[in-house]
Specification:
Blueprint (H helix, E strand, L loop, with lengths): L9 H5 L8 H27 L4 H29 L9 H40 L4
Helix pairs in contact: 2-3, 3-4
Length: about 140
């Protein structure tokens, strides 16, 4: 069973010789990382169907890259932690991974809130202008 009280102990996070992960913990982490990978695949397929909207495609590709890279790195961290490899299997790498995920997500959200509307309006202006040109 998961012992959430250990998550608040500094010794749990910063020991170089990590304790073994429980079977349930490994399963939960593996399923969570598999969901990230499945979402990355979904966003990649969805981006191919929305080619008429380049700002949305750019957002979907950013999400797909983030999810696929973080799932891959997460699986490596899970393997190293499962095998209890000295230093590389330490639990603080999961904190670093989580901070990286959050920072990357903040940049994607900033893009979606600030740059994407400007790109969308620019695309609409360009399409409106091209509508009146003869071909």
């Amino acid at each position: 069973m998961l012992n959430f009280a250990r998550l608040f102990e500094l010794n749990f996070w910063f020991t170089l010789r990590p304790s073994a992960l429980g079977e349930r913990t490994v399963l939960i982490l593996a399923v969570g990382l598999a969901v990230l990978l499945a979402l990355a695949i979904f966003f990649k397929i969805f981006a191919k169907t929305k080619k008429q909207n380049p700002p949305l495609v750019k957002l979907l590709r950013k999400l797909q890259k983030m999810l696929s890279v973080m799932a891959f790195v997460g699986f490596i961290l899970l393997f190293l932690s499962y095998e209890q490899i000295y230093l590389l299997g330490a639990h603080f790498w999961f904190l670093a991974w989580l901070v990286g995920l959050i920072v990357w997500m903040v940049f994607i959200i900033l893009y979606a809130l600030r740059k994407m509307p400007a790109e969308r309006s620019e695309l609409e202006k360009k399409q409106k202008f091209l509508k009146y040109l003869s071909r």
